[in-house]
Amino acid sequence: xxxxxxxxxxxxxxxxxxxxxxxxxxxxxxxxxxxxxxxxxxxxxxxxxxxxxxxxxxxxxxxxxxxxxxxxxxxxxxxxxxxxxxxxxxxxxxxxxxxxxxxxxxxxxxxxxxxxxxxxxxxxxxxxxxxxxxxxxxxxxxxxxxxxxxxxxxxxxxxxxxxxxxxxxxxxxxxxxxxxxxxxxxxxxxxxxxxxxxxxxxxxxxxxxxxxxxxxxxxxxxxxxxxxxxxxxxxxxxxxxxxxxxxxxxxxxxxxxxxxxxxxxxxxxxxxxxxxxxxxxxxxxxxxxxxxxxxxxxxxxxxxxxxxxxxxxxxxxxxxxxxxxxxxxxxxxxxxxxxxxxxxxxxx
Length: 348
Fold this sequence. Notes:
Blueprint lengths: L3 E6 L8 H15 L3 E6 L5 H11 L3 E5 L1 H15 L3 E4 L2 H5 L8 H10 L2 E4 L2 H10 L7 E3 L13 H5 L7 E6 L12 H10 L3 E6 L5 H11 L5 E3 L8 H7 L2 E4 L9 H8 L3 E5 L2 H4 L9 E3 L2 H13 L1 H18 L2 H15 L6
Parallel strand pairs: 1-2, 1-3, 3-4, 4-5, 5-6, 7-8, 7-10, 8-9, 10-11, 11-12
Helix pairs in contact: 3-5, 8-13, 11-14
């Protein structure tokens, strides 16, 4: 197993984007297991500086989170240092970049140059392997875990004081097209008219300015909905606990959405789009509810509003699933085993 690992990511703490949350959790877990690990954030440091720093660090393995955004630099460094490369694929890699004519050649080159590829779920590995069959044997499936710090307990009240009688839908995601932030508004217009206690809270940074402006305009005349922007990840436990239903309206996911995992870990009911990337966690009627269109979203959301018992049952089932199948130690062991396959433990 490598004693020293260079981990490259498009975003890192204090960013609250999904990549940053995942990297922070995994880096902390690997350090607890004795790995000497350093993280480089491409959003704050230029490639030339990162290259100099990584070369000075002399890692035994380079690990890239996000094939298209980080992979090209990581591949160059791994080759220059003559060390193995591990690439963890994101949903954008597997669902978009690999099939985008302008991005596919670079994405494929990175994947083909990696010693091991990590997917969060077997469906993502299969999707990539169907396009690049020679890479099938390089895949490891390492399920994500959820880790929620104890932050301020009054996060909701600090941003949006609400009566205790409300039914709060929480939309925790960066505001960009693939997350479809405006999708729930029309269905919930109908629901809020029928059930005046309904509220919708968006939490997350604006990642696409055009989508952010469109959402701001759409919320202007909807007093039952509010976007509070990004909050520290340490505040998410409090916001999730204060919510009744967590919404995921994504067009695609990378196999295991942090928002869904964290909702399950908090015992919250989940209402999610019926896309392949959500099926790894959300079993309709068991660990959450799924919808395919506006009508389905309205119908499922109304079930959750009028039936607190259903919300409680789904939330409890989600929590059991996360605790049983996706504990943090299993995630970290999955990465350590992937590393061992490339850098064996030295003989005593």
